[in-house]
Amino acid sequence: MAFNPQALLEIARRVAGDKKAYDITILDIRKISIIADYFLICTGRSPIHVQGIAREIIEEIARETAVHPRVEGLREGRWVLLDYGDLVVHIFVEEERQFYNLERLWGGAGELNFAQL
Questions:
Q1: Domain interval for residue 75
Q2: In DSSP terms, which residues pair with 72 in a beta bridge?
Q3: Which among 37, 78, 80, 101 is least surrounded, fewest beta carbons within 10 Å?
Q4: Per residue in 26-66, pLDDT tens?
Q5: Domain containing residue 76: CATH number
Q6: Do the bridges between strand 38-44 and strand 87-93 make them parallel or antiparallel, or are there none, so unpaired?
């Protein structure tokens, strides 16, 4: 069953906020790339916090939709990537987020605020 990427995005955003992720940013990359529709980017305070955010997003999306992502980086917890196809969730520790600076790298993307979801 296919799910609307905006529905997955809303679940991921809600869970990230509930788990105290900060600097949550949503990039709409539909017009500049075919790899996904949206990136949700957020930051955790430590590798353990990043892992907790990622695990909770995985569990909640699976519980609500039965959709499971491809996962990278969970063991290390410095940059976890959850690939849901049309939604890619990036969860960083602060140092990694500043280094990779996805918002600059994907500078042509529009940034969404939560009211637009």
A1: 5-108
A2: 81
A3: 101
A4: 999 988 989 999 999 999 999 999 999 999 999 999 999 99
A5: 3.30.460.10
A6: parallel
Place of tokens 């290390």: 76
**pTM > 0.85: yes or no:** yes
C-alpha to C-alpha distance for 4 and 25, rounded to whole angstroms = 19
Q: What is the dihedral of CA 30, 105, 81, 97, to 10 degrees?
A: -140
Using CA atoms, how far residue 73 sits from 6, 27, 39, 54, 77, in Å, is 24, 21, 16, 10, 6
Structure tokens at 55: 């695990």
Contacts of 51 (CB under 8 A, 6+ apart): 74, 77, 80
CA–CA dist 33, 18 (Å, integer): 29
Nearest by Cα to 48 from 10, 17, 74, 85: 74
Residue 114 lies in a domain: no
